[in-house]
Amino acid sequence: MNKLFSKKVKVKNQGMIRIPAELRKKFDIKDGDYVIFQEDERGDFVLKKIESEVKIREKALDIEKFKEVYKKSRQEDLELEI
Hints:
By secondary structure, this protein is α+β, with helices and mostly antiparallel strands.
C-alpha cells in the first residue's frame, strides 16, 4: 500500500512555496518543470505536474513523424501485395 504524503510548508513572498524534496523526487519534478494547482470536488486543491509546451510540441512532432513512417510502410506493404 502506498503511503500518503503530508507536509506543512510556509507560503513566502509573493505566494511562493517550496515543494518538499521527497515529493519532487517521487513525482520527478525538476527545475523548470510546470505544476498546476487544481481544485477538486471537495473544494480542496491538488498539485499536479504538467508537461511544458515544449515537450507537448516535441510529442506532436513525434506523432507527425510516426504518421509519415506509417504511411510509407503501408505504401511498401501495398507494393509487395501487387
